[in-house]
Amino acid sequence: MSSLHPRAGRRCHNAVNPLHSTVYFSPDYAKELAGIGVEDTSAAYFAGRAAALGAVGPGTVTATFYNFSHELIARHLPAVWDTASPATVLAARMRAVDATLRRLLGDAITSPEMAEAARLALRATEACSRPARPLYAAHADLPVPEEPHLAFWHAATLLREHRGDGHLTALLSAGLDPLEALVSHTATGKGMSPRWILASRGWRRTDWEAASDRLRERGLLDADGELTEAGTALRADVEEHTDRLDLAPYEHLGAPGVERLTELGRGFLMAAAAAGAFPDDLTGRG
């Protein structure tokens, strides 16, 4: 039996994953991608996150990213690879990560704590598994950067995509399609705001309302857009299913290591957030 608290892995993920995500909100990322000819923000995101998979088309990205409109993805892929190869995109992304973390964290990138966080996160990734986890598996084939802050970001990426690939299995098992997953997550108060979802995921307001209606028909959402008791239970089941599928790296790291990585990750995350890493209206129901 595991000595980990049932939600210890989730808490660790919630501390480490957002620091990975800072790059996609960073002006440094937009600058680096524009420098290789990818100026559209959606194209830049799809290219940066999908480049580890190779020069894939829209079908692969729709399948692996899950909650974006296929129509939006198809506007940019595979055309973006005519502008910049996956290898060129990956190099630009890493330059952006370096610039972003230096700007947000300052001297902390060379601290003993950053080196410790990188060691712990990389140790956790030793127990991640490739089968049925395409985004994780693709990133796991990339080399580990030498500098601790970049190694930590790389490890955070592996942990993020490992959990994310498993999360899609949980969503499918719960019968939540891409937009239903977004609507129900937003209704928990922890997901992205509808404004950000509609602006970044390629969905229309009518799509959002149709998904909400489907959730109401299943008794998961009430007339005011709040989760019902059944909806709350379903979202809890999804997260617990994801926890079970994502347990291996945290069991491998062990309870003390998970606790320490969570502590370090939260410290870096709080510093990054205080430095303006995320938009003020990114989350919420508005």
Task: Please characterize this protein's 3D structure.
The chain is an all-alpha fold and 286 residues long. It is built from 16 helices and no strands. Helix 8 (112-125) runs parallel beside helix 10 (148-173), helix 8 crosses helix 16 (255-274) and helix 11 packs across helix 13 (205-217). The longest helix is centred in the middle third of the chain and has 26 residues, at 148-173. Pfam families: HTH_67. This is SalK.
Number of E-state strands: 0
Radius of gyration: 19 Å
| Fraction of residues in β-strands | under 5%
Kindly state the mean pLDDT as a whole number?
96
Major β-sheet annotation:
none
Secondary structure tally, helices: 16
Instruction: Quickly give the structural class.
Output: mainly alpha
Pfam family, one: HTH_67
Protein name: SalK
InterPro entries: HTH_67
In short:
This protein is an all-alpha fold.
Question: Would you spell out the secondary-structure blueprint of this structure?
Answer:
Layout: H1 8-21, H2 27-35, H3 41-50, H4 58-65, H5 70-76, H6 80-83, H7 86-105, H8 112-125, H9 134-140, H10 148-173, H11 178-187, H12 194-201, H13 205-217, H14 229-245, H15 248-253, H16 255-274
What characteristics describe this protein?
286 residues; mainly alpha; 67% helix; HTH_67; SalK
